[in-house]
Amino acid sequence: MERLVMHVDMDAFFASIEQRDHEEYREKPLIVGGLSGRGVVSTCSYEARRFGVHSAMPIVRARRLCPQGIFVEGDYANYKAVSQQIFAIFARYAPVVEPLSIDEAFLDLTGMELLMESPRAYAEKLKAEIREKTGLIASVGIAPNKFLAKLASDLEKPDGLVIITEQTKQAVLDPLPVSRIWGVGKKTAARLEDLRIRTIGQLRRTPRERLARELGAHMADHLLALASGIDTRPVAPREPAKSIGKEVTFPTDIESAEEVERVLLALSEKVGYRLRRHGCKGRTVQLKLRLGDFRTYTRSRTLAEATCYDREIYETALALYRALGVKQGIRLLGISVSGFDTSGAISLFHEEARKENLYAAIDAIKKRFGEQGITKAQLLKTRDEDKDNGDEV
Q: Is the pTM of this model over 0.90?
């Protein structure tokens, strides 16, 4: 049975909600994000995009490009509530829904062909219901797999509806730039440019041996599969995690407290981002530490309030490390957060709202440029590549 996957992506989600709720913002260049001197754009309306403004751009630059723009910090509690409405609609259209973020998801429609007039009519019905019940516009892509479906939803934004089939996939893929492939960031794109590979079609026709020599066998296989429109990953609902964490094993034991503190800060940043990406806050922070002789220690602390913020996770993990009083080389460090608060409530206190806005802006950068798109200043001076050993628990 041929798979049928739908990807739904809300258009300019935060900005569209603001324009829906505030008549004075409609058809105006609206920018949502942190308004401080170091703030960044979370998202912006299509009217603002005509001036070159885009998500993850520094607010200072956005003001220069679009001085007539309307700048707002945003109401993230409201955005989350609207997201819940939209995902409730998704659940009525497909038995399996895989969230990607607050405003996009994959829906597995495989085997549902008898329940629909056609995939296009089914997508139009979904788009119409979202618009009727939320006043917002979605773009939809339908294809035989996740990669092609996500690609399709982005081809005709805003208010797009693109269907890619097995028969048409290469005609769609081949002219596109290689940057449209998952896993091709700036560095990989530059290396492919050095090989005079600029389009997906050129990549598809490149001998595997040549790519493997330049990029490694694993990356070569990954790129060639996607360039041929092959993606076997299933649409999978996210099961509630019991904990979310990150740990790292070092090629040589680390000795200095300064180095330990730097690693704990980096781990806290990753764990905080993943908590927010999953919409989770946790009360219990756990530190895992393994010495060079393989003795392993775990220590945890339960906080008065659940958190998903890097700084609070770091300060708790640092206190746990210092309390251990370790005086010898460390082979492994890890941080995890558990004891999730499932209420999803967002504090109305001003300071908490500022944190929500700050981290939403940070996460917008990471979503656009990857987890290394923004980091703490003290992490810019890093040791040689650490060997990761473990991700989400």
A: no
